[in-house]
Design brief:
Aminopeptidase, 2 domains, 6-stranded mixed β-sheet, 6-stranded antiparallel β-barrel, 12 helices, globular
């Protein structure tokens, strides 16, 4: 090793933490930075599954890959089961210079009933993408094809989907996924990127590196309402039921003030039905013991509907669909990170919330 290399290493050892208020998050944020750069457009998640497999197998975790779900297990697989969807919103080329929101193309509509958060927010986000840089990738392998930018986006009433006009990607063929060009930003005590739901995948890898010995499931096509089917197929293969499934995700709020009113978001129920009381109460109790502030999203939505005379749905989550399909034999609860700018490349969450969720999950690491 030459002197210049030695100097570089010595210099790196003097680098200050990126998040001085939360230096313990630096190793987690390094994982998140890596994963955010990898494409995982809804319906085209194969290459991202391979990235997850590599990261987990490198630390000796048992990994099994099935259609639509990657399962990682430690030495105590039934103590606790975590789940996180890994698809992110993006575009799909559906014709000559024609691009649609991937989650809502016609072939993905069967599991969407109009009352998911994604569908309800489509009109809210339709004008947020102008000027956004995007990149095309080969399906399955994820090979980079080129970059372009979004010139315009609008909702087509006939196709009931967001349609995008792009500059620079007129050469791509139908079936090509287009992801947002994304990089993690850390500023003013927050992280920003398209963090739904790569942030949860990064947390799970971090937990395994810290000694987590339970089971973790990474599911595809949650944004199209299909992820619960892949999760269910795995439970059926294993002839397994549980009341201790914790699904990790982000949760949208209209303002930073509303998002930061609590560090984590829990739920009693969604539009499908009630979650498992015992594990929900267990998380709440641990929050209280650890000094972590929390609230219940279903109660928040109900209160806002009453105040504003609105009728927003409680949303249909992966867990609610699983519980309904199995008559409650597979159930658990959700653990969510409050965020703003939901379903955009600028989704923002407080570092205090990230830290709180990690500390809460670390309490399960034996």
């Amino acid at each position: 090793m030459n002197a210049s290399n030695l100097t570089a290493i010595e210099d790196l050892s003097q680098v200050k933490p990126v998040t001085p208020a939360y230096p313990q998050l630096d190793s987690f944020l390094n994982i998140l930075r890596l994963l955010i750069r990898e494409p995982s457009v809804t319906g085209c998640e194969d290459s991202f599954f391979r990235v997850l497999s590599r990261e987990l197998e490198e630390i000796g975790v048992k990994v099994e890959y099935y259609h639509g779900v990657l399962v990682a297990q430690g030495s105590k697989p039934h103590d606790l089961i975590l789940s996180a969807h890994i698809d992110r919103h993006g575009l799909l080329c559906t014709g000559a210079n024609e691009f649609q929101y991937a989650a809502f193309i016609a072939s993905n509509r069967s599991d969407l009933t109009g009352d998911s958060v994604s569908e309800q927010m489509m009109h809210t986000i339709e004008n947020r993408f102008q000027g956004q840089q995007v990149q095309a990738h080969l399906p399955y392998v994820g090979t980079y094809l080129g970059q372009g930018s979004i010139v315009n986006s609008y909702i087509c009433p006939t196709r009931n989907n967001l349609i995008f006009e792009l500059d620079g990607l007129d050469f791509v063929q139908p079936g090509t996924p287009i992801s947002f060009l994304d990089r993690l930003r850390v500023d003013n005590g927050c992280i920003s990127a398209q963090i739904d739901n790569v942030v949860s995948a990064a947390m799970i890898i971090y937990l395994f590196r810290q000694g987590f010995q339970g089971t973790a499931m990474f599911t595809a096509q949650e944004e199209a309402g299909k992820s619960w089917r892949y999760a269910l197929s795995w439970f059926q293969r294993q002839r397994l039921t549980t009341q201790r499934l914790i699904i990790l995700d982000t949760s949208p709020y209209p303002t930073r003030e509303a998002a930061e009113a609590q560090e984590i978001t829990l739920r009693h129920q969604d539009a499908s039905g009630f979650f498992a009381n015992e594990i929900t109460a267990e998380l709440a109790q641990r929050c209280e013991e650890m000094g972590i502030s929390y609230s219940y999203k279903d109660a928040y939505i109900q209160a806002q509907n009453k105040i504003n005379n609105t009728s927003y749905s409680l949303g249909r989550t992966e867990l609610g669909r699983l519980a309904t399909a199995t008559e409650g034999k597979i159930n658990g609860t959700t653990l969510q990170i409050p965020s703003t700018e939901y379903h955009t490349p600028n989704e923002t969450a407080a570092l205090s919330s990230i830290d709180a969720v990690i500390r809460l999950l670390m309490s399960y690491v034996v």
